[in-house]
Amino acid sequence: MSHSDFVYLTEDASHDAAILLINEEAFGPGRFTRAAERIREQGPHDRRLSFICADRGEVIASVRMTPVLAGMTDAHLLGPLAVRPSHKNRGVGRELVRIAVDAARRAGSHAVILIGDPPYYRPLGFEPTRPGALVLPGPVDPHRVLAACIDGVAATDLAGVLRHRSLRHGIPRGV
């Protein structure tokens, strides 16, 4: 199987069941307790900026983007990013991240934020945010909060409550 067999597509509703299965495989039931999941529960992800990778018609990976505010800065939360175990270490995840960040840039986002592994994401253009500057709805290792910034905004400039963009005029309960 070569990379030429992989097709990257914008996510649509027909991919939902496969994405759910891939996320279950990758993260298990503990994924629902994570701070990033608390943000995703505040409102829908943006399908226009969310993508899948298919191999011969089978969905084998996905990345979702959720519109968020970092303080008052329009941004997107990247994740979950998940790849089926049979297709790991082939560059699929890196390509999905690249596609999603480019799409966010074209959509006018000022930053793409994620909670993830710095050695994986730093080579993809993500930098650490200032520890504790972004307030999330749950515990998180501050060294895993990373951002790829657009339009001259620096990762260390991002500050404030990280919440779904639909909550622009209110802070969700529990934060």
UniProtKB/TrEMBL annotation:
SUPFAM superfamilies per UniProt: Acyl-CoA N-acyltransferases (Nat)
Residue ranges constituting the N-acetyltransferase domain according to the UniProt record: 4-147
InterPro entries per UniProt: Acyl_CoA_acyltransferase, GNAT_dom
UniProt signal peptide: none
Matching Gene3D superfamilies: 3.40.630.30
Keywords: Transferase
CDD domains per record: NAT_SF (cd04301)
PROSITE patterns documented for this protein: GNAT (PS51186)
Single GO term (MF): acyltransferase activity, transferring groups other than amino-acyl groups
Coiled coil: none
One Pfam family recorded for the sequence: Acetyltransf_1
UniProt keyword Cell membrane present: no
Protein name, entry field: Putative N-acetyltransferase YhbS
Organism: Hoeflea marina
Lineage, uppermost ranks: Bacteria, Pseudomonadati, Pseudomonadota, Alphaproteobacteria, Hyphomicrobiales
